[in-house]
Amino acid sequence: MSPAAEEPDPNPDPVSSAAAAARAVWRRLEVVHAVTYFAPSAAAAFADAGYRGFWMGYFAGRAAPLGPVGPQVVGALFYNFAPERVARALPDAWGFAGPDAALAARRDGAVAALRGAWESAGSEADTVAEAADLARRAAEAAPVDGRALFAANSALPWPADPVARLWHAATLLREHRGDGHVALLVALGLSGRESNVFQVAAGNVDRRMIERARDYSEAEWIEVTDALVGRGLLTSDGGLTDRGAALRADLERRTDELAASAYAALSAEELSRLIDLLGPLARAVVAAGDLPARTPMGPTLGE
Q: Are 89 and 55 in contact (CB under 8 A)?
């Protein structure tokens, strides 16, 4: 690359710049949020609340802001799970412990993991508090229209503790992004079950992991793959075609653009400051070892 090519664009596209910043924030905040699914303290908190097994805790915790809903609503909003998997957890979970218990468990388990990671890394309390305040401002001003999971989480009270506040903001902003992503999948004609296979074809996750985590039989995997091959999105050996690669690029670009609306309340300087603050915090969470290197959501990011 020539020296001239390395110089920053003097007239950057504001939409592209905002989308890139939204992606950078997401890569860091996703790590902060995801401890609620993988940290031992999170699993213990759900077990202590009375939930039986990982999946009952997962569905109860993530769905709790919606109230004691059933599997149809959760399956529609979470989008890519086998209906049978959701129905094995809900509504039975609410007979063991209600949504309030699930909300407390997911918060307390996540906060314990984050506090441990940041104390071990020597993260400054002021850094956590400043990041939490900036992320909160973004989350409070983010548009709610059409984003059911984000809206449900935004109705919850803000924690006073800075660690809990940053985790809550991370949860709000990742569900805001996720709601937009699901809307785009629907618009692009990719069903939830197809989106999992498509993600594997793109090289983002391992097939065997997705088959286990999202309950695919060999027959269903072949059926979904054949449907995507028939639409010209996958090759016969399960890779992306040029058309599939273009659709994936469009999906990621538009997801970033929709997510950027969550940060409109922050100035460019504040958004850059948030990214800088979150970097070391995310690295500390990864270094703590509570998150696997790859998850059903994709590789653990952090940067």
A: yes
- Give the per-residue pLDDT at 4: 35
Structural contact between residues 277 and 127, judged by C-beta atoms closer than 8 angstroms: yes
What is the structure's pLDDT at 15? 53
Q: Which residues of the chain have pLDDT under 50?
A: 1-12
The model's pLDDT over 133-144, given as tens digits with 9 standing for 90+, comes to: 999 999 999 999
Query: pLDDT value at position 197?
Result: 97
Q: Say how far apart CA 181 and CA 297 lie, in whole Å.
A: 13
**DSSP per position, the chain:** --HHHHSPPSS--HHHHHHHHHHHHHHHHHHHHHHHHH-HHHHHHHHHHT--HHHHHHHHHHHGGG-S--HHHHHHHH-SS-HHHHHHHTTTHHHHS-HHHHHHHHHHHHHHHHHHHHHHHT--HHHHHHHHHHHHHHHHHS--TT-HHHHHHHTSPPPSSHHHHHHHHHHHHHHHHHHHHHHHHHHHT--HHHHHHHHHHTTSS-HHHHHHHTT--HHHHHHHHHHHHHTTSB-TTS-B-HHHHHHHHHHHHHHHHHHGGGGTTS-HHHHHHHHHHHHHHHHHHHHHT-S-SEETTEE----
In whole angstroms, what separates CA 162 from the centre of its chain?
A: 21
Q: What is the pLDDT of residue 1?
A: 33
